[in-house]
Amino acid sequence: MNKLLRADNTRMLRSATFRFGLLSLLALLLITFFLDGDKGTLQRTEAGFQSLLLFLPMVCGFLIILSVGAEFGNGAIRNKLIVGHRRSHVYTSWMVTGIAVTLISFVFTAAVLAVTCAIDGGIIELSAKTLVTLSGVILCSLLCNAAMCLLISVIVPGAKGAVLCFIFQEALFMVFMISAEEGGIAWVEKVSYFFPQGLIGVVSLLTAPEKPWVYMLCSLGAAVVFFALGIHYFRRKDLN
Amino acid sequence: MDYVLETQGLTKQYKKFTALRNLCMHVPKGAIYGLVGRNGAGKTTLIRLVCGLQFPTEGTFALWGTEYRDAKINLMRQRMGAVVETPSLFPYMTARGNLEQQYRVLGLPNFNGIDELLALVGLSDTGKKKAEHFSLGMRQRLAIAVALCGNPDFLVLDEPINGLDPQGIVEVRELILKLNRERNITFLISSHILDELARIATHYGFVDRGRIVREMSAEELQNACRKCVSMTVTNTEALARELERRQIDYTVTGPDTVDIYAQLNITQLAVALWEEKCEILSCSEQDENLEGFFLSLVGGESHE
């Protein structure tokens, strides 16, 4: 298992795709931050924060799907199975790599947002408790997103999987946005507990959700379900 | 005999299509086992099962005596390498990068053997050139190098010379022979380029419609394909006596037919047999190669 982790992490973190993903995040955050030039630092940071919830899962999802899809596409996955690695270990290693990518991307975007905010002229005072709670809720939803993307990438590997993931994430975002404008639809609100896109309408930079642990539990629960489904499917899948 | 791979009643069904039917084969240790069969015969399916990429519908196989359902099969798999269909490489990595990645997958403590492997497959001077810019022959050799990481005892190669130019074919052939002789690596090679396989294989398995129709050693095949004169006579005992008197190698293949393995003076033999009241009814020269033998086994008609 450690061998696979080392191999997968090294490949992912050294890949041009990963660097390109981080650069894309940087560009998207800066564009969002400076889009409304006439607003104050707080409003612009809030907009940047909201865009983090939109772009981060998308970029992380793409990175996971492209990485796993590459192994299916070029046949490198065979090199793991032929030499005796268990399928459950291969899948778990992908999941851990996906989590690592998510964590690094989250820290990167949070740092970019903080630096941008500081350069813009105003340091926003946030309570440590709010910051930690927000980080926890967002990270848990991002883990759920990573597990979902990994499941998609194994069922539909490669570019098709990436397109499917993009459509699904966009659809989630649209549903939550429309629901927020309509004044909140009960079932949509419940689904929003699980996905980062759903948090856009729920959390703000200045306020943590009322019951953060509900969001965390729902997201982590969904992540575990996606992970279990993925392993179950992958262990029975015939590979070429 | 020690077998590296044995299969018993191996069957693989894809919905309504049966790719393998009750297949039994035996790959002896140290052999270069040629899996011969036309396209769609089931060669690649068999290799996918052996490599753990797919699962049998029925039957079983064992690597070094360990059945595939046994938990220890993963330990056995650590002793094997394979190139299945297309070379499994990261196209954006260099030759060295691909080998380093496989070293990490295998958990090897350092990259010390990489230079030796690159030299072995003739890719030492590729430098920073990425695998996507390699020729097919270079990619094939790199894939073999990846399969050789960790010093396996058993190498499975699926159509290793498909699409290679003559130079590439010679290089891969030489490499296989070298590895078999110097490192005693057992090979399972599938191919439908029979002439090429005939140059290296020590054992053969002929596959047709998902079954092994015959397994034999190269020696047995050589005997089966040996150039001979097949003679039909009225008295095989008289012919046998005459051939023994002349110290000529022969095999009685039927109640009235004898295969004679020598250049004959037919007139002299006919005169000698006439004195024994034995008539020659027919006489034909037989000269079969691997291709002819394969066709005689599976028939010439299309299966598609």
Number of strands of chain A: 0
C-alpha Rg of chain B (nearest Å): 24 Å
Domain unit count of chain A: 1
Q: What portion of the residues of chain B fall into strands of 2 or more residues?
A: 25-35%
* CATH topology (fold) name of the largest domain in chain B: Rossmann fold
Major sheet summary line of chain A: none
Helix content of chain A: over 70%
> Using CB atoms under 8 Å apart, which protein chain pair has the greatest interface?
A-B, 27 and 34 residues
Instruction: Categorize the overall geometry of chain A.
Output: globular
Given helix and strand content, the structural type of chain A is: mainly alpha
Query: What is the name of the CATH class of the largest domain in chain B?
Result: Alpha Beta
Question: How is the main sheet of chain B built?
Answer: 6 strands, mixed
Give the name of the CATH superfamily of the largest domain in chain B.
P-loop containing nucleotide triphosphate hydrolases
Task: Please characterize this protein's 3D structure.
The complex is a heterodimer of chains A (240) and B (304). Chain A has 240 residues and is mainly α. Chain A has one domain (2-236). Chain A has helices at 2-14, 16-35, 41-74, 76-82, 87-120, 128-155, 159-181, 186-191, 196-199, 212-236. The model of chain A has no long low-confidence stretch (mean pLDDT 84). Chain B is an alpha/beta fold and 304 residues long. Helices cover 35% and strands 28% of the residues of chain B. Chain B has eleven helices and 14 strands. Chain B has helices at 43-50, 73-77, 95-106, 114-120, 136-148, 166-183, 194-200, 218-224, 236-245, 266-275, 290-298, and strands spanning 3-14, 17-28, 32-36, 58-63, 66-67, 80-83, 154-158, 186-191, 203-208, 211-217, 228-233, 250-252, 257-260, 280-286. A six-stranded mixed sheet of chain B has the order 6-7-8-3-9-10, sandwiched between helices. Chain B has a four-stranded antiparallel sheet with strand order 2-1-4-5. In chain B, strands 12-13-11-14 form a four-stranded antiparallel sheet, covered by helices on one side. The longest helix of chain B is centred in the middle third of the chain and has 18 residues, at 166-183. Chain A binds chain B through residues 2-4, 6-7, 10-11, 15-16, 70, 74-86, 236, 238-240, and chain B through 48, 51-55, 73-78, 80-82, 84-92, 101-102, 104-107, 146-147, 150, 156.
